[in-house]
Inverse folding.
């Protein structure tokens, strides 16, 4: 009896210890989590400050590059979460008075949209092919796709540049579209997913007399819907963020997407920079809000844990 | 009878061939694209790296490579990139593994925390650069905070400390992605093995090192490779923060490539690209071999 009680006591002590431990862990992880969120929140909250407030808060930082600062700027930097006065001035200026930002935003859409749509189309077909037959040749091809996928831009941009030169598409959007569309990333991911579809499903359809195209359209694609969404999200973020390709393949700065252009905002326009930055992240944040589960699923498949 | 069988075999063969042809058709668009935009030009890149110039086509073999390897700018860029990867990649792997273990260990608000850590991945770097500048400027927030503790002002972006800022930005951006991978891997470890170990009174550390790392090895490999690739992409962050001409410690391989593109020195460019491709393949090969030795007794 006594022995029993003692063991219960140690268990309860152990449980309490565990609870304390997990509370401490929660506080630490939670603090880090909030820290991670800070830059995003700050960018958004700062976008609701009037230009004058921005200059008085951060002027000293962005003005130092200029030679003669004539207006008074406070000596210290005030990082503020909440604007003194909520103002939509930045947005009004960006949306109505300075068309160059909207133009660059439009460039981003024009660049990324076709890549997402057509890379997926091409990749779905290729992944289906990699799934349906698995000869030695196919395995070698698939392996070389992986190698190409793993190469950093510093390597792939040189071949891309050469081809663009040959095809005479340098300094046009085609120079970014085409390598983007044929990038093997989506093929890899979708193949990994499709290979999980039980072959019995496809064989059953075959026995019922379905042709390849029919199997692809009515069985394979519906089963891969979530994978297609998640790959679409991954492609979208990757290209929405692009910097290297436009810098090398598009010499005309007018054609650059906002991701490159944002770094060139000079001190005179700092008053609206936060609004531009916020506008630029809205599409990705929306995609994230609606597709977080797909994104997580996509990343998981990428890791091959399920595949 | 015999002829019927033959006939049937023939028709089956024909069907197979047609099927094969059909599947080739599905693969064709992608395959042609990959060949035209990646593989064939890369062969040309190899060729360019071996000749003296694209017009006279004299083979010079390794001269271009020697020229690149002897180039001071390339050495600086390669050294900086290597240093950055050596610091950032292990940190990204270890920290995200710790985060994943803590989150999988049953913290409350797990999905919210997951969202917090994953959100940086979604935000374009260009949008965040402003905040980073406010934080790490000479008169910025971090220096002001450090001043409270009596630390002298550090000119973060224009000193030997510059890579620290980039490492932080890299971790901020990539930890969530790695963490998701580890979380999925952790949750797929069979529970019964761990329960048995617990019954045998194994300590949590023993369980981690002797059981979990075995199951995690393929994920660790993958996370390391992805972090490595992402560490090569960090040029984005550096470019957006500092422009074309960063401080010396931030001069990366992509800067070198950009400058070489501007001078249109194809030989140098090709040789540099091939050196990088070889280094990349060697590193990934070593990682694969290590993993297959380490995790081979675990199935699945």
């Amino acid at each position: 009896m006594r022995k029993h009680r003692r063991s219960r006591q140690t268990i309860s002590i152990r449980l309490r210890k565990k609870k304390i431990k997990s509370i401490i862990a929660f506080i630490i992880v939670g603090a880090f989590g909030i820290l991670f969120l800070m830059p995003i929140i700050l960018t958004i909250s700062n976008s609701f400050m009037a230009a004058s407030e921005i200059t008085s808060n951060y002027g000293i930082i962005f003005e130092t590059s200029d030679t003669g600062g004539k207006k008074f700027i406070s000596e210290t930097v005030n990082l503020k979460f909440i604007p003194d006065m909520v103002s939509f001035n930045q947005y009004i200026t960006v949306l109505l008075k300075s068309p160059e930002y909207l133009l660059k935003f439009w460039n981003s859409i024009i660049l990324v949209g076709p890549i997402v749509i057509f890379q997926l189309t091409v990749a779905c077909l290729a992944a289906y092919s990699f799934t349906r037959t698995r000869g030695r040749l196919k395995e070698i091809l698939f392996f070389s796709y992986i190698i190409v996928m793993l190469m950093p831009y510093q390597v792939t941009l040189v071949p891309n540049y050469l081809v663009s030169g040959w095809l005479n598409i340098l300094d046009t959007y085609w120079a970014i579209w085409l390598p983007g569309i044929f990038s093997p990333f989506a093929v890899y991911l979708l193949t990994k997913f499709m290979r999980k579809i039980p072959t019995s499903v496809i064989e059953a359809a075959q026995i019922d007399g379905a042709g390849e195209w029919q199997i692809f359209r009515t069985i394979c694609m519906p089963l891969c819907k979530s994978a297609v969404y998640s790959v679409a999200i991954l492609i979208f973020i990757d290209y929405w963020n692009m910097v290297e390709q436009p810098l090398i393949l598009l010499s005309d700065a007018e054609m650059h997407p906002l991701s490159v252009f944002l770094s060139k905002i000079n001190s005179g326009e700092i008053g609206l920079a936060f609004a531009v930055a916020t506008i630029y992240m809205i599409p990705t944040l929306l995609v994230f809000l609606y597709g977080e589960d797909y994104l997580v699923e996509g990343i998981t498949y990428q890791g091959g844990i399920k595949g | 009878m015999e002829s019927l069988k033959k006939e049937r075999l023939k028709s089956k063969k024909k069907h197979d061939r047609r099927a094969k042809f059909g599947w080739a058709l599905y693969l064709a668009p992608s395959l042609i694209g990959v060949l035209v935009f990646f593989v064939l030009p890369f062969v040309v890149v190899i060729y360019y790296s071996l000749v003296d110039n694209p017009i006279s086509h004299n083979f010079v073999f390794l001269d271009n490579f020697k020229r690149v390897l002897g180039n001071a700018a390339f050495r600086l860029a390669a050294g900086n990139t290597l240093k950055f990867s050596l610091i950032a990649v292990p940190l990204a792997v270890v920290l995200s593994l710790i985060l994943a273990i803590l989150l999988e260990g049953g913290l409350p608000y797990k999905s919210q925390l997951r969202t917090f850590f994953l959100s940086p991945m979604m935000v374009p770097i260009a949008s965040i650069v402003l905040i980073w500048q406010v934080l790490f400027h000479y008169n910025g927030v971090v220096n002001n905070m450090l001043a409270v503790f009596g630390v002298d002002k550090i000119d973060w972006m224009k000193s030997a400390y510059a890579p620290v800022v980039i490492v932080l930005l890299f971790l901020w951006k990539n930890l969530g992605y790695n963490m998701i991978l580890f979380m999925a891997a952790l949750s797929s470890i069979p529970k019964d093995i761990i329960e048995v170990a617990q019954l045998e009174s194994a300590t949590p550390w023993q369980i981690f090192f002797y059981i979990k790392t075995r199951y995690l090895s393929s994920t660790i490999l993958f996370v390391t490779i992805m972090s490595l690739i992402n560490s090569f992409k960090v040029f984005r962050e550096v470019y957006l923060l500092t422009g074309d001409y960063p401080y010396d410690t931030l001069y990366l391989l992509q800067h070198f490539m950009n400058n070489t593109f501007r001078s249109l020195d194809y030989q140098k460019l090709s040789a540099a690209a091939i050196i990088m491709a070889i280094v990349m393949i060697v590193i990934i090969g070593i990682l694969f071999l290590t993993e297959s030795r380490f995790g081979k007794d675990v199935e699945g």
About this structure: Chain A touches chain B through 93 residues (CB under 8 Å). Residues 94-302 of chain A form a domain with the MetI-like fold fold (CATH 1.10.3720.10). Chain A has two domains: 2-92, 94-302.
